[in-house]
Amino acid sequence: MNQSQLPRISIRGLSKRFGEKVILDGVDLDIMPGRSTTVIGMSGTGKSVLIKCILGILKPDAGEILVDGENWLTLTEHEHLARMRRIGMLFQGAALFDSLPVWENVSFALLRQGVDKKTAKQRAIEVLEWVGLHKIEDLMPSELSGGMAKRVGLARTICHKPDIVFLDEPTTGLDPIMSDVINRLILRLHKDSGTTILSITHDMKSAAMISDQIALLCHGRVHRQIPSDQLDSDQDPMLRQLVEGRAEGPINCSGWGKQMEEAIQR
């Protein structure tokens, strides 16, 4: 197998529980270089927990997370922080700093790396224009609409030119038109830069639009992984239940999301 065929991210046997509640139960998942992979699943099935484990925000109970063949779970804190410079992350709620103007939010990673303010601001303006926002660099986050904040969050995600990008529910809370805008920007990012992208969502339209590969996370494991163009034709019962939005089916919906929320709060 040549280098280009090796997974960029390889997850093996990843497990995480909160108290007695098992959230991830031996997740296996490969993210190939230059591909856009989306993990789908019901709310509360552990999609965000999966990304937080990869990023080091949560510590898994077992398993391996290999990035370019290196096990990130064995890194020191200093080594992990150094590797994170290659990563871009779009949080579900944009997670902008209220006290910083838009340009400082967008260029935050560059400023942390010691880039001078003039250069950082110019780069911020460039990526803001790339996401369709002009002359807003001096506004405060409180002056932005929800859709603008999400685009600012995406601009911040790519400002430091990461080669791996994580997207946490990129269209949550947006109206259909703004959701389409965000999806098209993600597609453009993937096409223009060839960035490796891992997204999580329960928005089936978004998943179909932005992905090369789709993985269904259910009952703590990756139940199925398929090319995105098979999403409408694949007849796996669990996948069909989620795509068609049916309460009845092999995915037991009763109380699952509530139980996980209660477990995390404990």
Question: Notable features of this structure?
Answer:
266 residues; alpha/beta; Rossmann fold; 6-stranded mixed beta sheet; 4-stranded antiparallel beta sheet; 36% helix; globular
Largest sheet: spatial strand order: 6-7-8-3-9-10
Give the CA-based shape.
Answer: globular
What is the H level of CATH, i.e. the homologous superfamily?
A: P-loop containing nucleotide triphosphate hydrolases
What class do helices, strands and sheet pairing give?
alpha/beta
Task: Flag low-confidence runs.
Answer: 255-260
Kindly provide the name of the CATH class.
Answer: Alpha Beta
Order of helices and strands: EEEHEEHEHHHHEHEHEEHH
The percentage helix is 25-40%
Mean pLDDT: 89
* Tally of strands: 10
What is CATH's topology name? Answer: Rossmann fold
Cα Rg: 19 Å
Helical element count?
10
Largest beta-sheet details? 6 strands, mixed
Between the first and last Cα atoms, what is the distance in angstroms?
45 Å
Integer tally of domains: 1
Percent of residues in beta strands:
15-25%
Instruction: Label the CATH architecture.
Output: 3-Layer(aba) Sandwich
